[in-house]
């Protein structure tokens, strides 16, 4: 699956996107898997309340299933201005 990172998440991880082979059942499982990779991932995912997630371009929750999902995007909450 494609995993996309936006704004400061991208800056901490150092990549805009990557292909990930995963057995994760939920977004939380994927986050745990990524966080265990390296410190930069752990830093990016250290406070999930500061992140939003979209599955196949639909806003979702961290407990959502990844079955059939092709794209996961992580980004900070958006603010108007």
Plain-language structure description:
By secondary structure, the chain is an alpha+beta fold. It has one domain (2-75): Beta-grasp domain (Ubiquitin-like (UB roll)), CATH 3.10.20. 26% of the residues lie in helices and 23% in strands. A five-stranded mixed sheet has the order 2-1-5-3-4. The longest helix has 9 residues, at 27-35. The chain starts with a strand and ends in a 6-residue tail after the last strand.
Brief sketch in words of this structure:
This protein has 81 residues and is an alpha+beta fold. The chain is built from three helices and five strands, in the order E-H-E-H-H-E-E-E.
**CATH structural class:** Alpha Beta
Distance between the termini: 33 Å
The secondary structure category is alpha+beta
Question: Strand order across the biggest sheet?
Answer: 2-1-5-3-4
> What summary fits the major beta sheet?
5 strands, mixed
Secondary-structure arrangement, i.e. CATH architecture? Roll
Strand content: 15-25%
Describe the global form.
globular
Q: Using the CA coordinates, give the radius of gyration.
A: 12 Å
Helical percentage: 25-40%
How many strands appear in the DSSP assignment?
A: 5
Output mean pLDDT.
Answer: 95
Along the chain, the helix and strand elements come as: EHEHHEEE
Blueprint (SSEs and pairs):
Blueprint: E1 2-5, H1 8-13, E2 17-19, H2 27-35, H3 39-44, E3 52-55, E4 58-60, E5 71-75
Parallel strand pairs: 1-5
Antiparallel strand pairs: 1-2, 3-4, 3-5
Task: List the keywords.
single chain; 81 residues; alpha+beta; Ubiquitin-like (UB roll); 3 helices; 5 strands
């Amino acid at each position: 699956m494609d995993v996309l990172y936006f704004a400061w998440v991208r800056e901490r991880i150092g990549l805009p996107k990557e292909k990930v082979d995963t057995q994760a059942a939920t977004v939380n499982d994927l986050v745990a898997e990524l966080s265990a990779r390296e410190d930069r991932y752990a830093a990016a995912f250290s406070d999930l309340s500061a992140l939003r997630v979209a599955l196949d371009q639909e806003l979702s929750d961290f407990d959502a299933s990844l079955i059939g999902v092709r794209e996961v995007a992580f980004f900070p909450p958006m603010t108007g201005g």
